[in-house]
Amino acid sequence: MENKPRKRGRKPKKIPATETMDFQFTTNVPQNDNVSLPSIATTTTAATETPSTGASPSPGRGRGRPRKTGKHTEKSEPKSPERRLTRHGEQNGEFYVPAAEIRHNNMMGVVAAAEWESVVKVVPAMDAVVKVFCVHTEPNFSLPWQRKRQYSSSSSGFIIGGRRVLTNAHSVEHHTQVKLKKRGSDTKYLATVLAIGTECDIALLTVNDDEFWEGVTPVEFGDLPALQDAVTVVGYPIGGDTISVTSGVVSRIEILSYAHGSTELLGLQIDAAINSGNSGGPAFNEKGKCVGIAFQSLKHEDVENIGYVIPTPVIAHFICDYEKHGAYTGFPVLGVEWQKMENPDLRMSMGMGPDMKGVRIRRIEPTAPESHVLRPSDVILSFDGVKIANDGTIPFRHGERISFSYLVSQKYTGDKAVVKVLRNSEILEFNIKLATHKRLIPAHIKGKPPSYYIIAGFVFTAVSVPYLRSEYGKDYEFDAPVKLLDKHLHAMAQSVDEQVVVVSQVLVADINIGYEEIVNTQVLAFNGQPVKNLKNLADMVESCDDEFLKFDLEYQQIVVLHTKNANAATLDILATHCIPSAMSHDLKT
């Protein structure tokens, strides 16, 4: 039987392939028995790219007569590459074409296999993107013995290998219940939080119900994209209940400030819209592989379409850290503050030769392991064999440089690194152990309830960034007391258990007349003994046998209370304010 080329003007009477505007193609079984359906994974990987310009296919395809655009029935919709792809799939019965049919079609001038690969567009694994529902119950840092009213939020996530789901840490922070819903499903499945990485803003979830994992192919990760590479952000942002797709390009790759964790890690800047609810959703490249997690955006009157994505190196570090240690241990830091060496006179005074480059150590964290070997005014020349420039950068990729802190962040807690320094015109090498950063005023308390201690109406607590935000709002860096801000920005902890303890407020009673206006003032000493942390203060007060309790505060203030009267008044004050205990649970152990 003679095979004639199929005309472009009329479609065969077959079950058509359905298409959606979110780039997911759902195909039905064709009537042709010679055409076999691929698996879900094959559907996403067998396809290749369509030209992203939207231009019509080149005439070299040998498809017969030119397309007649004047009589097309779908005039209201543009002729995008995706729509041409669907028509092509309908004419061939399915996207997958057996090798025998390809050879036959080549002889008939229908399509060449090489050109087919340049036409088909890769489709992201949309079914692996889930909607995350979370009920949050945040602690009340201003009234630490109680919690705030619970509230609900929704965000995005996606399924990865090992029956796990990735989302943002801030999406499930202070969670009491987490549920996941798959695309096209009406069922919400209870999820368990396995790990939360506050610094990198990533959380790992799982679902015990086997039904949740049926029919879903996990998302695969791709390499770090290059500048101007196309990205597609998928998620469930505000503005609707169904899945949403926005596209853009990678516009910048550098060390970014992670707002949730108050850290600086590698990040991608893209021009695709990232709105509330997009958090935790994947960013796909043109090959359908995940290159990052959407997590924050820049909102300012002078900027437009600036979104940020957590790249795959940070994601891989988080997952490997969890698999290696059974829990999230964090990203290590070098524990030093450094100064650029761009001034030639400065380099000459430090004994650096004309070919030497590096950065000068200003201060070293007393709690950092390297504080025993490194010294102020040492010049760091290299880290693990990678030379550091005078501005603190290292070669990253072709035509790109990045801060050398990227090398440190790629390590794991407890790993060792070789640091070469210049000290007194002598080059030294040290094998140092890396650890996480110990802040005097921590940026977060890792989901734990705040600690407190109450005596005679005086509420003592330890200062943290969430506490400052609770007391002074989002603009706490402008409104908080200067001395607390100075400790937050510049002070270093002298020991791993050191805290800044303050009188948060005074619950007014007869015992504390005249002290009512003391608010957020640091406690320096108790009965002549320095206060190291909140537990240390509580232990000293509880075991005090002196007649008076004397607290030395900042600004040369003192508070003196009669010991016996203070203990008796505490019980009445707790009952009046319905406070269950004079101290938090962690201080009792």
From TrEMBL:
<feature type="region of interest" description="Disordered">
    <location>
        <begin position="1"/>
        <end position="93"/>
    </location>
</feature>
<feature type="compositionally biased region" description="Basic residues">
    <location>
        <begin position="1"/>
        <end position="14"/>
    </location>
</feature>
<dbReference type="Pfam" id="PF13365">
    <property type="entry name" value="Trypsin_2"/>
</dbReference>
<dbReference type="InterPro" id="IPR001940">
    <property type="entry name" value="Peptidase_S1C"/>
</dbReference>
<dbReference type="InterPro" id="IPR046449">
    <property type="entry name" value="DEGP_PDZ_sf"/>
</dbReference>
<keyword id="KW-0378">Hydrolase</keyword>
<feature type="domain" description="Protease Do-like PDZ">
    <location>
        <begin position="441"/>
        <end position="586"/>
    </location>
</feature>
<feature type="compositionally biased region" description="Basic and acidic residues">
    <location>
        <begin position="71"/>
        <end position="91"/>
    </location>
</feature>
<feature type="compositionally biased region" description="Low complexity">
    <location>
        <begin position="39"/>
        <end position="60"/>
    </location>
</feature>
<dbReference type="Pfam" id="PF13180">
    <property type="entry name" value="PDZ_2"/>
</dbReference>
<feature type="domain" description="PDZ">
    <location>
        <begin position="332"/>
        <end position="434"/>
    </location>
</feature>
<keyword id="KW-0720">Serine protease</keyword>
<dbReference type="InterPro" id="IPR041517">
    <property type="entry name" value="DEGP_PDZ"/>
</dbReference>
<protein>
    <recommendedName>
        <fullName>Protease Do-like PDZ domain-containing protein</fullName>
    </recommendedName>
</protein>
<dbReference type="InterPro" id="IPR043504">
    <property type="entry name" value="Peptidase_S1_PA_chymotrypsin"/>
</dbReference>
<comment type="similarity">
    <text>Belongs to the peptidase S1C family.</text>
</comment>
<dbReference type="Pfam" id="PF17815">
    <property type="entry name" value="PDZ_3"/>
</dbReference>
<dbReference type="InterPro" id="IPR009003">
    <property type="entry name" value="Peptidase_S1_PA"/>
</dbReference>
<keyword id="KW-0645">Protease</keyword>
<feature type="compositionally biased region" description="Polar residues">
    <location>
        <begin position="21"/>
        <end position="37"/>
    </location>
</feature>
<dbReference type="InterPro" id="IPR001478">
    <property type="entry name" value="PDZ"/>
</dbReference>
<dbReference type="InterPro" id="IPR036034">
    <property type="entry name" value="PDZ_sf"/>
</dbReference>
